[in-house]
Amino acid sequence: MFKFYKLIFFMTMIIGSLITISSYSWMSMWMGLEVNLLSIIPLLKKSNNKFPAESAFKYFVVQSIASTLFLFSMILNCNLIDQINDFSSKIINTIFFISILMKIGSAPFHAWFPEVLEGLSWGNCFLMMTWQKIAPMIILLQNFKMTNLIIMVIIFSSFLSSILGLNQISLRKIMAYSSINHISWMLSSISSTKIIWLIYFLIYSLISLVIIFSLNYSNTYFLHQMKIFSSNKPLNLMINLNFLSLGGLPPFLGFYPKWLTINYLNFINHYILTLILILFTLIFLFIYTRIMFSSMTLLMVENKNIDFINKTPTLMFLNMGILMMILFSPVMFNYL
């Protein structure tokens, strides 16, 4: 049963992010981040499970450290009021970027992210993977410079997420490492016109919503449970197509923002960075294929789960809408 206090905290969480996005001073940005952090902690709580409480505590500690570093960099820069795009020294600039990168969970500051998601429900996982990244990303967007630190973070995020994701059987951890991998692409797209980042984030959020919605309805958390989708062939095909789209395989919708990012990186002569991103994305495509294997194999015994089959009309409707977007994505974005 939905509790009223969760609605209040959900609204203040949104307000905190909006305060950060619309702020013109560092102090109000920091205040917005803190309001957002203090509001999401009660949303992570679950009365009949101790794991969300542990995840909420880990998330609070890491985000508090990142917020402290963010405020510390502003104090060292002797400016809490004006929002300036230049820092007085490289050390302050590095502390500032580390604080933001820690908040979004990019490698090598990523260790907390899979552990936090592992203890949460699918709905809270979706919040962590999408909404909680908006405010820090907007701050990064307004003060972005393609420094050596950012290039190293992009490479580490792409490399570590692909390698560490290979050994996982938990779907929540796989989605967490997938998010870290997509962060590397988002950081690369920020260096271009900001519309590429916006397109990437919206498409990533849309595809993640469909996948998480399907996994939540089927109560699926581990690889061996994916066989439940074999009880419904059309739904099975659609959820697997969405995984391929999330991996950026052409001609699916998820390929479009990656293609825009590759095009811009080649335009500014970052050929090595482009090659690294593509190679490690191929590794993640293998991970998505491993997820699909248990539900796509011809010898799989069909699972006749009546409760799940009764829920599939809603899933079918949602997946069909995304599938239509996948099929018509070249037409939709032809003139962008």
Automatic annotation (TrEMBL):
<keyword id="KW-0999">Mitochondrion inner membrane</keyword>
<dbReference type="GO" id="GO:0008137">
    <property type="term" value="F:NADH dehydrogenase (ubiquinone) activity"/>
</dbReference>
<feature type="transmembrane region" description="Helical">
    <location>
        <begin position="237"/>
        <end position="256"/>
    </location>
</feature>
<protein>
    <recommendedName>
        <fullName>NADH-ubiquinone oxidoreductase chain 2</fullName>
        <ecNumber>7.1.1.2</ecNumber>
    </recommendedName>
</protein>
<keyword id="KW-1278">Translocase</keyword>
<keyword id="KW-0249">Electron transport</keyword>
<comment type="similarity">
    <text>Belongs to the complex I subunit 2 family.</text>
</comment>
<dbReference type="GO" id="GO:0006120">
    <property type="term" value="P:mitochondrial electron transport, NADH to ubiquinone"/>
</dbReference>
<feature type="transmembrane region" description="Helical">
    <location>
        <begin position="91"/>
        <end position="113"/>
    </location>
</feature>
<comment type="function">
    <text>Core subunit of the mitochondrial membrane respiratory chain NADH dehydrogenase (Complex I) which catalyzes electron transfer from NADH through the respiratory chain, using ubiquinone as an electron acceptor. Essential for the catalytic activity and assembly of complex I.</text>
</comment>
<dbReference type="InterPro" id="IPR050175">
    <property type="entry name" value="Complex_I_Subunit_2"/>
</dbReference>
<keyword id="KW-0679">Respiratory chain</keyword>
<keyword id="KW-1133">Transmembrane helix</keyword>
<keyword id="KW-0813">Transport</keyword>
<feature type="transmembrane region" description="Helical">
    <location>
        <begin position="148"/>
        <end position="169"/>
    </location>
</feature>
<dbReference type="InterPro" id="IPR001750">
    <property type="entry name" value="ND/Mrp_TM"/>
</dbReference>
<dbReference type="GO" id="GO:0005743">
    <property type="term" value="C:mitochondrial inner membrane"/>
</dbReference>
<feature type="transmembrane region" description="Helical">
    <location>
        <begin position="56"/>
        <end position="79"/>
    </location>
</feature>
<feature type="transmembrane region" description="Helical">
    <location>
        <begin position="314"/>
        <end position="333"/>
    </location>
</feature>
<feature type="transmembrane region" description="Helical">
    <location>
        <begin position="268"/>
        <end position="293"/>
    </location>
</feature>
<feature type="transmembrane region" description="Helical">
    <location>
        <begin position="195"/>
        <end position="217"/>
    </location>
</feature>
<dbReference type="Pfam" id="PF00361">
    <property type="entry name" value="Proton_antipo_M"/>
</dbReference>
<feature type="domain" description="NADH:quinone oxidoreductase/Mrp antiporter transmembrane">
    <location>
        <begin position="23"/>
        <end position="279"/>
    </location>
</feature>
<keyword id="KW-0496">Mitochondrion</keyword>
<dbReference type="InterPro" id="IPR003917">
    <property type="entry name" value="NADH_UbQ_OxRdtase_chain2"/>
</dbReference>
<keyword id="KW-0520">NAD</keyword>
<feature type="transmembrane region" description="Helical">
    <location>
        <begin position="7"/>
        <end position="27"/>
    </location>
</feature>
<keyword id="KW-0472">Membrane</keyword>
<comment type="function">
    <text>Core subunit of the mitochondrial membrane respiratory chain NADH dehydrogenase (Complex I) that is believed to belong to the minimal assembly required for catalysis. Complex I functions in the transfer of electrons from NADH to the respiratory chain. The immediate electron acceptor for the enzyme is believed to be ubiquinone.</text>
</comment>
<keyword id="KW-0812">Transmembrane</keyword>
<keyword id="KW-0830">Ubiquinone</keyword>
